[in-house]
Amino acid sequence: MIGLFTATAQGKKAAASLSLGPDAVLVDGPVKPALQRLWPSLGTAVFFMGAGAVTRLVAPLLENRRDDPGIVCVHDGFVIALTSAGNVLATEIADTLNITAVPTSDYVGESPLDEIVESLDTAIDGDIAACGAAVLAGDPIRLLNPLGFVLPDMPANLQPDNYGTEWTVLIDDRLPALRPKGKLLRLIPKTLVVGVGSSRGVTQEAVQAAFALLESEHDLDPRAVKSFATIDVKADEAGIQDAVADWGFWHGEDDGCTPPITIHTAAELAAVEVPNPSATVADELGTASVAEAAALLTARELGGRVELAAPKTNSANVTIAAARILPD
């Protein structure tokens, strides 16, 4: 339903001149109570009054981009879309009345994809500007979210069952097993905590080789790492510290930011249940696990629900594991 609201004779004359189809209704009576009564059934509300007055009328009724009607106001030679759902109708009205349309965007960034990046703190792999332009143009986009992250309200043209589209958006901390046809935009949330243990005097090169196994053996994207973790007796290992700094240089987005190293005591790690405990490590350090336990414990401290994304993996004299912070 398209509701046409006006409080003046001039506005009624302009509204009556429009041919917007059988769903358009010129609403009689006071605007505010009529708007409140009809709000649940409105697809678009068109107001023949100033934008300030319209804003005060609709503000208490707005809930979210997905469910709210389009809001358009016609005033002083302009047709202003106050919500992006009203852009198309605003252009149609402007063409009929031979005045100027003013479209809008509801998104904080340049497109709704920017809101995903902000809300999930993602790294970006692909042309987000071009994909965002396709979203705003209304092109069908396939949106894949296999880990079930909670997303901001998205427009209806972003759907998981949109097949054969030019663009696919994949939100995942893993490397894609298969690349879809067409163009791919990957948004990589920082969900992983990497636990690391080593022998005394370990080299930076040995730790780096172990870190590389997260990608080559477990298909985890290195840009998804939020934090590293280890036991306190390994906190001063130069090889671990230098390898983490090097990781940040190569994978830390534009600013080269290095993820922190969270330190735990043996007693804290010993209380964590792990799938691959070691009696040898328990005898030496007082905990049956360093890498798995440190990763799981730190991930819980950062996010609550967790799972082991990469079990204990050995490389020479280094052991690593990765835990994933799951969506709430």
From TrEMBL:
GO terms for biological process: cobalamin biosynthetic process; methylation. Pfam families: CbiG_C, CbiG_N. InterPro entries: CbiG_hydrolase, CbiG_N, CobE/GbiG_C, CobE/GbiG_C_sf, GbiG_N_sf. Keywords: Hydrolase, Methyltransferase, Transferase. Gene3D superfamilies: 3.40.50.11220, CobE/GbiG C-terminal domain. The keyword Hydrolase applies. GO terms for molecular function: hydrolase activity; methyltransferase activity. Residues 35-105 form the Cobalamin synthesis G N-terminal domain. Residues 192-323 form the CobE/GbiG C-terminal domain. This is Cobalt-precorrin 5A hydrolase / precorrin-3B C17-methyltransferase.
